[in-house]
Amino acid sequence: MNLRITHGRVEYWNPGSGERHHYMYLSHHEADRLSRKKNDDFLSHQNNADSLFDCDDNGGSIIGLDGKVVGLVNKHVNKSFVPSCILDKCVDLWSEFRCIPRLHLGMKFTSIKLLDPVHVEKMWRMYKIEDGLIVEEVSKDSHAEKLGICLGDVIERFNGECISTTIELENMLLGRCRDHLDQGNHLNVDIDVSIQVFHLEERLRRTINLTVNVSDSGEIVRRRTCPITEGTSTSVQSIQHVADDSSLPRELTWEDLARRYHRLL
């Protein structure tokens, strides 16, 4: 009978670099946070009206104003929940195939639409781009890195579809995995997905085939560690290996990387 009901609103944030694509976030009323501090000894203060609000949810359903379940609280990440559209696909995959596979892209992203309006306007003014996913991390030695995808580049399309948020991306990845298994294929194999990339530094748009792995294991995006050498110029080992496009740079400095990304900020 320890049913607890709280209220709040959905915050459209981009997931952090250590979080999964499918998380959405909640913002509770200020009274929720204050009440937690005042009601650590909850049972002895049941007459306190603030005790009805508690933002430290440890599980449960997220119910919209129309009474429908829209997600499930994730107690492992602060104030986050998994939306129903993702849960439905996961349950469906598990029921039929006893696994929940996804495509390992080797990248982390930030949605342009979820940046603040100043950054969105700047992207449009400088590059005429108003939609897509900004590459926030590229996994070391991944196929994405070998194709020349770098920090700050914008992924505009996956398999011809415009992708605006990481939730839409995760939906697309799960759907592609469902198609893969429906065709009688197996896990832990490589497949190709078509992506349209805009390289900010070169102002170059390309459509390339990215080889990704179909796996039901968690994806680890490995950060590249670069030695810092003495001298007036700080250099890194080559982080771009582009076999099919000689117009892209073969090597970037730390200053290039910082400029490429913080130009968006």
Overview of the structural elements:
- The chain has 265 residues and is α+β, with helices and mostly antiparallel strands.
- It folds into 2 domains: 8-97, no CATH class; 104-262, Roll (Pdz3 Domain).
- It contains 6 helices and 12 strands.
- It has helices spanning 30-38, 84-97, 117-127, 143-146, 166-182, 254-262; strands spanning 8-11, 24-28, 61-63, 69-74, 80-83, 102-104, 107-111, 133-138, 154-158, 161-162, 189-199, 204-215.
- Strands 6, 7, 8, 9, 10, 11 and 12 form a 7-stranded antiparallel β-sheet that branches.
- Strand 4 (69-74) and strand 5 (80-83) form a beta hairpin.
- Helix 2 (84-97) runs parallel beside helix 5.
- The chain starts with 7 loop residues before the first strand and ends with a helix.
